[in-house]
Amino acid sequence: MRIPESVKVPEIRIHEGKIELNSKNTAIIVVDMQNDFCNEKGALFVPDSVKTIEPISRLLEKGRAKGVKVFYTQDTHYEDDPEFKIWPKHVVKGTWGWEIVPELKPQPGDIVVEKTRYDGFYGTPLDHYLRHVYKIDNLIIVGTVANICVLHTAGSAALRWYNIYVPVDGISALNEFDMLAALRQIDFLYQGTITRVDDIEFV
Ligand code: ZN
Question: What percent of the chain has pLDDT over 90?
């Protein structure tokens, strides 16, 4: 196969108009908004992640006002993590780079799930809390990186039959291709709803 220089982007549906979600069975998951990914001094900086901080913060404020449960995934590695064969050393537990960005600091009552791989469900109690403790059906997933930890967490959630909602202004990737590839999979493969932060309303 020859890799073409450009491809036609297939259909990606972005929902237009308001979406009302029940605050009782909806949770927000903030994926990996940590200094190493979201600060220019970080080890694996994703420049576009910076402009998602404000919309994510708005979403959290809106959700918290209605009692929506907030989860964070926190990518977490130790010194000899095998992921450092793939990526430069990042988010080593206890370091500045590992911390969630101060603008989105978790609040009392939020649940922070430390994860070792792209998928927020792999080897973590995320499903236990969502399904059994809080009886959650709808997940709003924001964070970074769109085609890596966001996509794998969203896909893993959809495979478990959660309804997934992804505000396009709350996710970020390293380039346009990666962003579009993630959106295409979220829409087409996982049947998620792509929306915008200001179109989500909690009732
Ligand atoms: Zn990692």
Answer: 100
